Request: fold
Amino acid sequence: MTTGRKVKHTLQLLAQGFFCNIYRKRTSSSKIKTQGELKKLDKKIVNKDDFLYPRGRYYGQVKPENLVFNANLQEFAQRVSYICNLETGGKLPPGAAYEQIKDLWKQLKRSKKELRIGEDPFQDDQGEVQG
Reply:
């Protein structure tokens, strides 16, 4: 397995164990009598993806390209956080951490450029204002 796959697999196992422990604690502390109570309990259990990849609300100007870039930016921040924590914990060498963050940064820059974030919407490809 490559380092990235090992890390992803480890995070998945940690999340599964975490959710199993939450479920055990909630079910052992109270007796479930009906199917409705079980459904309510299932709604309280956090989704694994929401736990591993939390998303914040977007309060900026609501345009499709802004929403997409915001999602990309949040994913970038989350991945950089994981890489930093793995490097700090000694699970990832500093050089590999740097390269992974550098690649993520390039992807984010490419996303910004493709979505034309921060550009004048009335400019054409040559930089001249239309109108």
Q: What stands out?
A: Residues 69 and 112 are 7 Å apart (CA to CA). DSSP finds five helices and no strands in the chain. The radius of gyration is 21 Å. The mean pLDDT is 77.
